[in-house]
Amino acid sequence: MGSLVVVARGLSKRFGGVQAVREADLEVAEGELVLLLGRSGAGKSTLLSLIGGLDRPDAGTVTVAGQEGPALRGADLDRFLQKTVGWVFQTSGLLPLLTAAENVSLALRLMGKPEGPAMQAALTALDSVGLAARAQHRGNELSGGEQQRVAVARALIKAPHLLLADEPTAQLDTETARSIMALLREAADSGTAILFATHDESATEVADRVVRMEDGVLSASVGSR
């Protein structure tokens, strides 16, 4: 494994009377796929949001690629969200009237890349997830599994230091879910740090390490592969 990309220490977050995350310590290295395993409501999504800069902790610290996401504001936070972290959610979040290629290229366009190079990079990214033949199909013309593949391509095209995957296989059939897991494994093998939150025990097959979460508390990491 490479150098540490994520270093979280004592992260805590409360919503009303619920302690969603409790003093969480976690590290993820470059090229490592860490599986965050737990049932719905365990606090997985909240932890990912804290690490990915979408929410701020009540206590504790977290750095991603040397940047303290919770401390960033304004344009600095925007750059962190655009360049440092990639996301894949339970639903793909594609713009339905844009083509697959347009959806993927949009990630680069928002970072200021010209349309031509962004589109060429998008076509290459779609080819890498096996969707070259579907590049010109609109989001609403793709199957659920194809939409998630586009979402993975959109997240990875930015070459983020960290990819956060929040239940990306929850709405997919078993075979399609395995194909998404394989894509995440390939991304880790190419050097991307990945934190993959799921309730699916079968995902342990692609993980380097498994961390279980229950009622906001992380267990000790265990090796998998």
Describe it.
- The protein is α/β, with parallel strands linked by helices and 225 residues long.
- The protein has a domain at 4-97 and 162-223: 3-Layer(aba) Sandwich (Rossmann fold), CATH 3.40.50.300.
- The protein has helices at 44-51, 74-84, 100-109, 115-128, 144-156, 174-189, and strands at residues 4-15, 18-29, 33-37, 59-64, 85-88, 162-166, 193-198, 209-214, 217-218, 222-223.
- The strands form two sheets. Strands 3, 5, 6, 7, 8, 9 and 10 form a seven-stranded mixed sheet that branches.
- α3 crosses α4 (115-128), α3 packs parallel to α5 (144-156) and α5 packs parallel to α6.
- The longest helix is centred in the last third of the chain and has 16 residues, at 174-189.
Search tags:
single chain, 225 residues, alpha/beta, Rossmann fold, 7-stranded mixed beta sheet, 3-stranded antiparallel beta sheet, globular
